[in-house]
Amino acid sequence: MHRERDKDRDDNLRRKVDVYHLAENLEDCLQCGKCVGACPVASLSPSYNSRQIVSDVLNGQQERWLKSEEIWRCFLCSGCYAACPVDINFPNLMMQLRYMAVEHKYGLKYVIPFKRFALAALQDGLTFVPAGPKGRDRIRKIRTDIGLSPWPEVSEKAREEYRALFDLSGAGAFMETINEEDDKPVELQYTEGRVTFADKTGH
């Protein structure tokens, strides 16, 4: 397993990752492994190890998880959170790790589909709209058959409010910065069953 050098250490990494204060008790981690034992992804993918990711964040080492495929395998089921004896909300940490990875252009392939979905929703004021005419025609037929208008009616006021949410949250501007051609490849970074701990020198 690649181990970061001392120059790669960032003693403020935990604070940089947890910008929304969603995992403030991360230092309470006992490294007991209950999160891994309760994780369906870890049962199928031996390289996935949530306690190693926590260790890397606490030790100020980001290179492994930043470039890892593993952080994109979690599907936020919260089994780890339910099993954790000190109530660390690992799914919330994971969401922030992904956000930081995207800022560094890693894992964009997982975000691009949501960009298309979000921008379509922004345009139409609807949370789901099929991209192709075939899907739209099917919806029109179903709605007509049950006595509804052929297409959902969205007022201009509702569209404005929807756009305001995108503007206020920064979601629209964030999505516009994501370009498929900027995507840096991710790969499995954690070897099977191995948990490493860095000392003060990073060795």
What does this molecule look like?
This protein has helices at residues 13-17, 34-37, 40-44, 50-58, 63-66, 79-83, 90-103, 108-124, 133-145, 156-169, 171-176. It is an all-alpha fold and 203 residues long. It folds into 2 domains: 6-107, Fumarate Reductase Iron-sulfur Protein, Chain B, domain 2; 113-177, no CATH class.
Quick one: CATH superfamily of the largest domain? Alpha-helical ferredoxin
Q: What is the distance, rounded to the nearest whole angstrom, between the alpha carbons of the first and last residues?
A: 12 Å
- How would you sum up the major sheet? none
Q: What name does CATH use for the topology of the largest domain?
A: Fumarate Reductase Iron-sulfur Protein, Chain B, domain 2
CATH class of the largest domain equals Mainly Alpha
Shape: elongated
What is the CATH-assigned architecture of the largest domain?
A: Orthogonal Bundle
Helix content: 40-55%
With helices defined by DSSP (H or I, 4 residues minimum), what is the helix count?
11
Q: Which consecutive residue ranges, at least 5 long each, have pLDDT under 50?
A: none
